Amino acid sequence: MSSVFDFEDYKQYLIKYIEGLTEDKRGFRSRLADQIGCQRTIVSQVLSGNYDFSVEHVPAINRLLKHLPDEADHFMLLLQYARAGNSELKIYFKEKIQQSKSRHNRLRTKGTNKNEITREQQLRYFSAWYYAAVHMLVSIDNFRTAEKISERLNLPPEVTNDVLNYLTEIHLLKKVGSGYLAGDGVMYFDDHDSYQMVQHNGNWRLKSLEALSRAKTLHKHHYSLLLTASEETLEKIYNIIIDATSKVHDQVEAKQKNEKLFCFNCDLFEV
User: Is the pTM of this model over 0.85?
Assistant: First the structure.
């Protein structure tokens, strides 16, 4: 059975839910109509994309689907996103949906790894760009020793050693012979607007400014565009960026031989 957290469209979720029923699929729409107090044709019109359920219908739908509290909250967000009347509200609920998904994934895996990074440890990790850079660089075969890391990132040896010792201490890396490999430490975020994320974004925007002054290389790309647009167009641009960011994640999470350390920044904001 599909999970509500796998969806950003409540209608698609309901359609998949019905498809996953082992019996009485046709009768489900009638039961849904009875539960929310409307005719079956209204349910069909909603699921076909012409209309939306109201916010007042959500508690009854949650009861019928036997949603747990976090599932019920997420379903409500999906419906509010669908009903939002302007791009600003759409973006607001889109971000709430992403936060709900992240929170669910965190709670689902919380406790399965005893080496979860604490908030205090995260504060040091995000205090400077080179903690994350060293952490990621170790995933490349040729950069697993302190000497190679210092050379690649142009860091003083004492800074590199201090960073490696800290990342090992919090289990993000582990010492293997004369080199380092990824450890079993994990980090979670309940709020992507947290201080840690603000600091992280700031670190890499500053590194981006440094990169602007360097010679152009393969796959290096900087682009800024100041524009005016309608709210409808702004929402479309926002969704394009969210989809593109998701595709970048999918690419780098696929099994592959890592060869390059690169930074991908993405910004969209109102001036």
Answer: no
Q: What is the largest CA-CA distance in the chain?
A: 72
Q: Rounded to an integer, what distance in angstroms lies between the CA atom of residue 19 and that of residue 3?
A: 13
Going by DSSP bridges, is the β-strand pair 179-182/173-176 parallel, antiparallel, or unpaired?
antiparallel
The per-residue pLDDT for 71 is: 92
- The domain in which residue 75 lies consists of 4-100
Q: Is residue 50 part of a domain?
A: yes
Taking the C-alpha atoms of residue 268 and residue 170, their distance in angstroms, rounded to an integer, is 33
153 touches 140 (CB < 8 A) = no
Rg of the chain (C-alpha set): 23
| DSSP annotation string for 101-125 | HHHHHHHHHTTS-TTBPPHHHHHHH
Tokens of 263: 């930074």
pLDDT at res. 109 = 55
CA pair distance 57, 49, nearest whole angstrom = 17
Residue 25 above 80 pLDDT? no
- What CA–CA distance (Å, rounded) separates 159 from 131? 10
Number of residues in the chain: 271
In a domain, 245, yes or no: no
